[in-house]
């Protein structure tokens, strides 16, 4: 019975960690490499995830700055930049076409004028 309580606490901590990070169940699931229902079932206490899945899940949350404590969860530190779980496919930024980035001389002059006090 103590195992079930520990499992329930861990499920609540994962839910709280997601909340701190602003992650959805789907986002965490994609990052861990499982389905969204797996995360839903774990957080609701319906089933315990496979130990390997739980290990990846905990590693991803820890890498994002989450620390699991007896009281719940907290940030170890605020990440300098948002952490993206390893399983998330990163989109490459679209290149900007140079001719679209270059304005006319008149427009550039207007944008670079420094207002003076009269």
UniProtKB/TrEMBL annotation:
InterPro entries: Cro/C1-type_HTH, Lambda_DNA-bd_dom_sf. It comes from the Bacteria. Pfam families: HTH_3 (PF01381). Transmembrane segments: none annotated. Residues 14-54 form the HTH cro/C1-type domain. PROSITE patterns: HTH_CROC1 (PS50943). One of its GO terms (molecular function) is DNA binding. This is Helix-turn-helix.
């Amino acid at each position: 019975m103590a195992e079930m309580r520990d499992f329930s606490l861990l499920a609540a901590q994962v839910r709280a960690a997601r909340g701190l990070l602003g992650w959805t169940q789907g986002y965490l699931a994609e990052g861990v490499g499982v389905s969204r229902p797996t995360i839903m079932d774990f957080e609701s206490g319906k089933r315990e995830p496979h130990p390997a899945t739980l290990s990846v899940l905990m590693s991803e949350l820890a890498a994002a700055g989450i620390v699991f404590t007896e009281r719940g969860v907290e940030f170890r530190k605020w990440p300098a930049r948002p952490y993206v779980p390893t399983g998330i496919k990163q989109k490459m930024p679209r290149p900007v076409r140079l001719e679209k980035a270059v304005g006319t001389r008149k427009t550039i002059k207007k944008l670079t004028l420094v207002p003076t006090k009269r």
